[in-house]
Design brief:
mainly alpha
Length: 93
């Protein structure tokens, strides 16, 4: 029976293209890719939210300083959204 398992493991390793024994773990490569994809997704979301919040806060500060209506606020919102989208595009490019 142990010889059968060794033979079976050798066939699995040959199918995977592994030489000289088994890999460090069956899911190591997949988990690394999944973790990297999650991290990139979180970073993209943070870039978008950060751009919008930065633009809104800057526009609100200008509106407060200048005593104007929501003009700078809305302009900051639009520019922050555009900057956030640009950063996400640049990150995923």
């Amino acid at each position: 029976m142990p010889g059968d398992l060794d033979d079976f493991q050798a066939k699995i390793d040959a199918a995977r293209g592994v030489q000289g024994g088994s890999p460090s773990g069956p899911f190591d490569d997949t988990q690394t890719r999944d973790t990297q994809n999650k991290a990139q997704g979180l970073r993209a979301g943070a870039e978008l939210v950060g751009g919008v919040l930065g633009g809104v806060l800057f526009g609100w500060a200008l509106d407060t300083w200048a005593g104007t209506a929501p003009g700078f606020f809305l302009g900051g919102l639009a520019l922050g959204f555009a900057a956030g989208l640009y950063n996400v595009w640049r990150l995923t490019k």
